Amino acid sequence: MLSKNQIKLINKLKLKKHRTESNVFVAEGIKTIKELLESNLKLKHLYTTELFNIETDLETLISEADLKRISFLTTPNKALAVFEIPKSNPIDLTQMCVALDDVRDPGNLGTIIRLCDWFGVRDLICNKGTVDCFNPKVVQATMGSITRVNINYIDLEAFINDVNVPVYGAFMDGKNVYTHNALLNSGILVMGNEANGVSNSIEALITEKIAIPRFGALRATESLNVATATSILLSEFKRRTLTEK
Amino acid sequence: MLSKNQIKLINKLKLKKHRTESNVFVAEGIKTIKELLESNLKLKHLYTTELFNIETDLETLISEADLKRISFLTTPNKALAVFEIPKSNPIDLTQMCVALDDVRDPGNLGTIIRLCDWFGVRDLICNKGTVDCFNPKVVQATMGSITRVNINYIDLEAFINDVNVPVYGAFMDGKNVYTHNALLNSGILVMGNEANGVSNSIEALITEKIAIPRFGALRATESLNVATATSILLSEFKRRTLTEK
C-alpha cells in the first residue's frame, strides 16, 4: 500500500519546480525503466506491479489501483520509477551539437533526444525556454535515449556569442542543404520554436542559414514540424561524414 | 444555437463507421479550415464563433459553449467544419509512392501525409489496418496537407503482388540508404507498424531492403519512430533527384 504522502510526493513531480527542488524525475513503463536501470542513473525508488528483483529496499510491490494513483499516463504500464536527475557534463564543441531555441512540445523534444542518440550527437543544448527534458512526457517519448545524450539548459544567446564554431539554422530563405557544400562535422545546429522558428536575437548569430527545399509543386505546404526537420538535417549532416571522406 | 440532434450527429463523426456512412469528416481550427476551403473539397457546413463570410446557408454562427459541445479538441479553436470525403484518384506508379502497413498512430499518419506533401509524393497507399486518414486527429496533424496527397486504402499485399516496380522497405539489416546506389525516383516505399514493423507477408514482397544506419556508438538505440524514418528516407530519395541528374 502506498501512503497518501507518497502519492502526493510523486504527483508533485509533474511540475518542474518540484523536480528541481527534490532533484528527481519520474519514468514509467517496464521497457523505459529497464533501459534507465542499465544506465548510470541513480534509482531512488521503484513502484511496480511485477517485481524486478533488484535491491529490496529500493523496490515496492504495489497494486494496479495504486499505480493508477501515481501514474502520469492515461494507461499506466506496470511500473513507475523515481530517479535522481543526473549532473550534465560540459559541452564538447569539437563535435556537431544540436541547440534548441524555445521548443515547447514535450513530444518534439523527446523525438529530438532520440534523434540525437541515433545520429551520435553527444550534446543537446537547450535555452531556458525549452520544455524541461525531465518532464514525464519527454522522458516517455525518448524511449530510454535520455540516458545517452548530454543535455544542458543554458543562456543560449550568451553561449553562442562566446564560441567560435559554425552556427547553422534552418530558414526558408537559407541555402539548399542538399547542395550546399560548406557542411562540416562540427558546429551547432539551432532549431527553433514550433510556431515562431528561431528567435530574432539567435538568428542574428547564425553563420550559415540552410533550407530544406520543398519538392511539392502545387501550393505552399505548411513548414515541416521541428522534429521532422531535425531528422532531415541530422541525416544530411551525418550522411556526409560517410560519403565524403 | 445548435440542436441536440446536430450535436449528436457531429459527435458521431469521431468514429470511422459513422464517417463512412455519411461520407463526411470534421476539420477544426481557422487555419486548417481556410486551407480546406481553398481546396477542391466540398464544404457541407461550417460552425464558427467568427463569421468567415462564405455562402450564408453553409455557415452558422455559434457560441464558444456550443463549439465545446461539438469539438473533438481539448481546447476548441474558433471553428469546426464538416466536409464531404473526396473520392480518391487512381494510383500513379510512374512516381515514387509511399505505402503504409498498419500504421496505427493518428499523429504519425498526419506527419507522414505532411511529409508526402512536402516531398512531392502524390500517392499515399494505406493497407486496411492503417488508421483512417479522416480521423479528426489525423486531419488536425496534417495542417491542410490532406487536400494535396492522394490517399487510397487498399489490400496492400494484393496490390504489391500485381505491380512491377521496385518495392523498398526499411529494415535493420537492409543496405545503407546513404551509399546504396540503386535508388530510383519511382517505386513504392513501404513503412511498417510502430511496434512490429513491416508484416511478414509484405516483407516477402520487398525487392530492396534498405537501412538508415545508426551513428550513435554506445548502445542499441530504440529504432526510429516511423514518421521520423519516413522523413529521412524521403529526404534521401528526393535529394538524389536534385544532385544526381
TrEMBL record, chains A, B:
Print the keywords alphabetically: Methyltransferase, Transferase
What InterPro entries does UniProt report for this protein, alphabetically?
Alpha/beta_knot_MTases (IPR029028), MRM3-like_sub_bind (IPR053888), Ribosomal_eL30-like_sf (IPR029064), rRNA_Methyltransferase (IPR051259), SpoU_MeTrfase (IPR001537), tRNA_m1G_MTases_N (IPR029026)
A molecular function GO annotation: RNA binding
| Residues spanning the membrane | none
One GO BP: methylation
Q: Where is the MRM3-like substrate binding domain?
A: 5-81
Q: Which domain of life is it from?
A: Bacteria
State the family named in the UniProt similarity comment for this chain: Belongs to the class IV-like SAM-binding methyltransferase superfamily. RNA methyltransferase TrmH family.
Name under which the protein is recorded: TrmH family RNA methyltransferase
Q: Which organism is it from?
A: Formosa algae
